[in-house]
Design goal:
Structural class: mainly alpha
Largest sheet: none
Number of helices: 6
Strand content: under 5%
Number of strands: 0
Length: 142
Amino acid sequence: AVVSTQSTGNAKRRLQQEIVVNLASSKANHGRQEEMLRMLYEAMHGVFESAGASLNSHSFLPSSPFPTNDQGLLDSLSLIYENCALFADLYLRYPDLTEALYGRVGGGKFRTTAEQSVQFCWDRQDVYREGSTHGKLLHLAM
């Protein structure tokens, strides 16, 4: 799985994501890298869609206050943040493969869901602040 739905253990999940990224960048041939990325992007697409739908059903906007009392919103927000970090990392390492897969993943809808999720994170400015390491990573992937 790309990420867990629990909001604890963010550092551990990010480390797991970094391991996946490093494995993908190992000496695997181009076809294997493309297949690995396709599977990751399919999973991300599903997460982006379901977490985004959850945020939308609660009318949660980038300008909304941080949801401290709603575990469902916290989980959805966490999933968007974590998957955007992983997506940005993969996009920067594999721009050509990502561009090639954009139109094939999620029935061709992955580009839209990924861009909407990245834009949502950028607009929030609570985790991905401009000038921060995370903000720079996200900005480079936009």
